Amino acid sequence: MTDILLKLDSIDTFYAQSQVHFGLDIAVPRGEIVCLLGGNASGKSTTMKVILGLHKPRAGDVLFEGASIKGLPTAQIIRRGIASVPEARRLFGDMTVRENLLMGAFSRRDRDGVAADYARMLELFPRVKERLAQRAGTLSGGEQQMLAMARALMSRPSLVCMDEPTMGLSPLYVDKVLELIREINQQGVTFFMVEQNASLALQIAHRGYVLQTGRVVLSGDAHSLLGDQRIRDAYLGGALAAETAS
């Protein structure tokens, strides 16, 4: 039986009277990379907010390690083992790279473990190591993404949630970020990533979900989805959307 690390179960989400999610069901198996695909206004970013406790669903539940985390403060969710690499990185621009990196371990009290993880991050992210004394706000977009990933890993998470990890990056850094996600996953970290670029995400993912106007319209293993013409329909509102609505 597959070990499900994170499960969104029949989620209904609203902003005031406007419904964003309609019975959303997503399962993230332990040890896998799972991508959530969809166009603008499909509900992808709200899905991430629901997981991280930034927006409470009106119905349904969010389960992590088999226990409900719905309604918990974000800080408690992070302490349970979920880390976030948000869209646009959201670093502390006036703080140094080193200070930003250590902020990822704010909830930890194991000094030796933090020191070991700090050394490991510098080995895993050599560009971060080269910029330790530099203010984070002066880094390039790709370097900021590297730092945001390293900061997330400093909490020693079981699950990393990444929101649009390739957005705004040069092709060189897009390839590097995807390569690092795959490498870190092979070391035992589970990833749930929201991404607009289906072909890029599905190349490294184990499985994917396609979200359209708050509903999952297509899901399956990444290899099958990568060759499925219905991906185009799901994004562009074509035949699949019409079938789903009928």
From TrEMBL:
Occurrences of domain ABC transporter (ranges): 6-238
Taxonomy, superkingdom: Bacteria
MF-aspect GO terms: ATP binding
Species in which this protein is naturally found: Paraburkholderia sejongensis
InterPro entries hit by this protein: AAA+_ATPase, ABC_transporter-like_ATP-bd, ABC_transporter-like_CS, BCAA_Transport_ATP-bd_LivF, P-loop_NTPase
A Pfam family matched in the record: ABC_tran
Gene3D superfamilies registered for this protein in UniProt: P-loop containing nucleotide triphosphate hydrolases
PROSITE patterns assigned to the protein according to its UniProt record, in alphabetical order: ABC_TRANSPORTER_1, ABC_TRANSPORTER_2
Keyword Manganese: no
Keyword line: Amino-acid transport, ATP-binding, Cell inner membrane, Cell membrane, Membrane, Nucleotide-binding, Transport
Family: Belongs to the ABC transporter superfamily.
Keyword rRNA processing: no
Protein name per UniProt: ABC transporter ATP-binding protein
